[in-house]
């Protein structure tokens, strides 16, 4: 179950599938996933058991960079996006890595309070 | 590229080494090796773990205040590149680290010198008291070479004995 790192209205997501990977089992930072909302804040646009797309922004599993840096987060989190890749919420919570720039999620990076 | 300090043991982390852990409040903990990382996961306080720099500084084992530390302070303001300045800095770095190393070594030597003196006096005392375990005291008295290097003052009793008491 992933946490939601924005204010779109969902709280917890369950990953169903990774977009663009047929047999990949585990999503990494930057992967777009199909997820179902397991827990949501009441009276907002997103409801429980809605199937949406999200991009993974934080993982407990280490992220390895080419310069040898290894980054590990404290939780697994995703930001809900629409079909184009724009975030649904207006604020992002928590630190985001530069890896998202490679995947062209510039809007998320600009909203992030802290970019590593 | 930046040389960071390990959060647990305060050693420098060179590029390609160690793990960075980002907590949910966006605080970054950098570790130089898995030993430090595992100790952190065990929730150990570095100030209580004896081999860390934090413990050593806290308990006065290592030097804490010195002017050489000022050179290494983190400055968050980026400096404009100045060629002459950079050259000077590069020349100064080995000198400063040499001075710092000698000062740290002196600090430790000074701290340990008290123990050295104590041990020597202890040894001397033990020698004086327990020399009988090595050789019998009578043997030591006969053979002058076996005695401790003390200054012996021989008092001649013969003269005083022969002087008759005044009646």
From TrEMBL, chain A:
CDD domains, sorted: Ribosomal_uL14
Predominant place of localization: plastid
Keyword Ribonucleoprotein tagged: yes
Any one GO BP annotation for this protein: translation
Keywords for the protein's UniProt record, in alphabetical order: Chloroplast, Plastid, Ribonucleoprotein, Ribosomal protein, RNA-binding, rRNA-binding
Gene Ontology cellular-component terms listed: chloroplast; cytosolic large ribosomal subunit
Subcellular location(s) per record: Plastid, Chloroplast
Recorded GO MF terms: large ribosomal subunit rRNA binding; structural constituent of ribosome
Top-rank lineage group of the source organism: Eukaryota
Gene3D superfamilies to which the protein is assigned, alphabetical: Ribosomal protein L14
Sequence similarity: Belongs to the universal ribosomal protein uL14 family.
PANTHER family membership: 50S/60S RIBOSOMAL PROTEIN L14/L23 (PTHR11761), LARGE RIBOSOMAL SUBUNIT PROTEIN UL14M (PTHR11761:SF3)
Name this polypeptide is given: 50S ribosomal protein L14, chloroplastic
Organism for this UniProt entry: Rhynchospora pubera
Automatic annotation (TrEMBL), chain B:
Gene Ontology molecular function, alphabetical: structural constituent of ribosome
Gene Ontology, cellular component aspect: nucleolus; ribosome
Matching Gene3D superfamilies: Ribosomal protein L24e
Family annotation (InterPro entries): L24e/L24_sf (IPR038630), Ribosomal_eL24 (IPR056366), Ribosomal_eL24-rel_N (IPR000988), Ribosomal_eL24_CS (IPR023442), TRASH_dom (IPR011017)
GO term, biological process aspect, one: ribosomal large subunit biogenesis
Similarity-based family: Belongs to the eukaryotic ribosomal protein eL24 family.
Protein name: 60S ribosomal protein L24
Species whose genome carries this gene: Rhynchospora pubera
């Amino acid at each position: 179950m992933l946490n939601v790192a924005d204010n779109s209205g969902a709280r917890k997501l369950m990953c169903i599938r990774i977009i663009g990977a047929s047999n990949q089992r585990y999503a990494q930072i930057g992967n777009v996933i199909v997820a179902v909302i397991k827990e949501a804040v009441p009276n907002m646009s997103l409801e429980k058991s809605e199937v949406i797309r999200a991009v993974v922004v934080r993982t407990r599993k280490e992220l390895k960079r080419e310069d040898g840096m290894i980054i590990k987060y404290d939780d697994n989190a995703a930001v809900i996006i629409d079909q184009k890749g724009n975030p649904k919420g207006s604020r992002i919570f928590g630190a985001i890595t530069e890896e998202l720039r490679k995947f062209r999620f510039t809007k998320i990076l600009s909203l992030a309070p802290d970019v590593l | 590229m930046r040389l960071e300090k390990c959060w647990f043991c305060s050693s420098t982390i060179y590029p390609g080494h160690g793990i960075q852990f980002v907590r949910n409040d966006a605080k970054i903990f950098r570790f130089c090796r898995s030993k430090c990382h595992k100790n952190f996961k065990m929730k150990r306080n570095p100030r209580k773990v004896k081999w860390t720099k934090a413990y050593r500084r806290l308990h006065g084992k290592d030097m804490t205040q010195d002017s050489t530390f000022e050179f290494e302070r983190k400055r968050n303001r980026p400096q404009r590149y100045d060629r002459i300045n950079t050259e000077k800095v590069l020349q100064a770095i080995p000198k400063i680290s040499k001075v710092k190393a000698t000062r740290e070594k002196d600090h430790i030597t000074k701290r340990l010198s008290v123990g050295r003196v104590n041990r020597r006096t202890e040894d001397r005392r033990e020698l004086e008291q327990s020399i009988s375990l090595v050789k019998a005291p009578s043997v030591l008295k006969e053979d002058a070479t076996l005695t401790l290097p003390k200054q012996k003052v021989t008092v001649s009793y013969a003269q005083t004995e022969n002087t008759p008491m005044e009646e």
